[in-house]
Amino acid sequence: MLPARIDVARLQARTGRPVVHLDECDSTNLIARQRARVLLQQGDVRRRALPLVVAEHQLAGRGRLDRRWRSLPRHNLLFSLILGPDLTLVDAPRAVLAWAAALAETLDVSLKWPNDLVDGDGHKLGGVLAEHEPGPDPDRVGLLVLGVGVNVLQTEFPRLPQATSLARLRPRSVFDRTELMADLVRAVDGVDLAAPDLLERWRARDRTIGRRVRVGGVEGVATGIRDDGALLVDGRPVLAGDVELIGAR
């Protein structure tokens, strides 16, 4: 028997966002980007309630570096938030880190740079994929789509030994996917992007700093993240890439 579907009315009431709810789609990010383009064409995006796109199942879910992510129907959280537009392109990467930190705090899990949600051993239970939809100002974000995937009820991950889920981490817990998604959306919407210590929340949940890593052809010790969100590896900045943890702290 499949778990219950997301309760759309309750989700809309708790988040204050219009909800686009789909039983199945290729990718919530694709749908959200289409919605974002229409909103930008209509103008006045600052005055509109930006939608939340939710799927019970994805056929072409993907993470960073175009990796495929398969999820059992109605078992996990698959959603995309449309965010912005008061954000410069320069500030966008650190904003995404701050949003990922808000998700990690809500789930009480850790982070691997840049946006992987992991347990204490580095097993991945979710992640974030941010995509920019350009607007009229080339220096500013038109709208930003933040795709979020979290393994909740699924417990088997064939050929993915590093994957985990909330049900695996907390087997005695009962998870209400609607409430959990509402909590995550509200956490993202509640982030103050003007806070001077914006990235401290990310650093507090980090599992990367102090580890020997390999990323983007660079290998060394991750020594910190700059205020623009770049990872420092032996003092050298890495702006993007997939981090492989190859040594203990």
Can you tag this structure with a few keywords?
249 residues; BirA Bifunctional Protein, domain 2; 2 domains; 6 helices
Tell me what you see in this structure.
- The protein is of the alpha+beta class.
- The protein folds into two domains: 8-207, Bira Bifunctional Protein, Domain 2 (BirA Bifunctional Protein, domain 2); 208-249, SH3 type barrels (Roll), CATH 2.30.30.100.
- The protein has six helices and twelve strands.
- It has helices at 8-15, 28-42, 92-107, 166-169, 177-189, 200-204; strands spanning 19-22, 52-55, 77-83, 110-112, 116-118, 124-133, 143-150, 212-215, 218-225, 231-233, 236-238, 244-245.
- The strands form two sheets. Strands 1-2-3-7-6-5-4 form a seven-stranded mixed beta sheet, sandwiched between helices. The protein has a five-stranded antiparallel beta sheet with strand order 11-10-9-8-12, with no helix packed on it.
- Helix 1 packs parallel to helix 5.
- The protein is globular.
- The model has no long low-confidence stretch (mean pLDDT 92).
